[in-house]
Write the C-alpha cells for this entry.
Amino acid sequence: MSVQFKLSDFRTGEKRKVKVGEKDVVVFYMGGDRFFAFDAYCPHLGCDILKVGVIIREELVCQCHFSHFSVFDGKVKKGASKKDIKTYKVEVIGDTVHVSDNEE
Ligand code: FES
C-alpha cells in the first residue's frame, strides 16, 4: 500500500497527515529529499503526532509526555513510551514522493 504526492507541493518544515491504506500517517518534510513518516498517533497514550510531534535532530518528540523516538526506525530513545512508533518508507523519485508501509 502506498500513496504519492508532488515534491514541489511540500514546504520545508511542513508536516502533513496522509492516508496509507487505512492508516493515518504523519509525514515530515525536512528539505531537499529528506522525509520521515510515522504513525499519526503516539504509541504511549495516542496523542496526535500532527499536533504535538516535532523533530529535533534525529528524534521525533511527542510533546504530550516527551517520548523520544528514532526518526530512522521509530525505536524509543527516552521518555514515557515503552513502545516504538511505527515508521513508513518515503522515497522521492523525480518530483514524486511515495509513502509506503515498511512491512509490505
Ligand atoms: S502520548 Fe506521546 S508521549 Fe504520551
Summary: The beta strands are 2-6, 15-20, 23-31, 34-39, 53-56, 59-62, 67-70, 76-78, 87-93, 96-101.
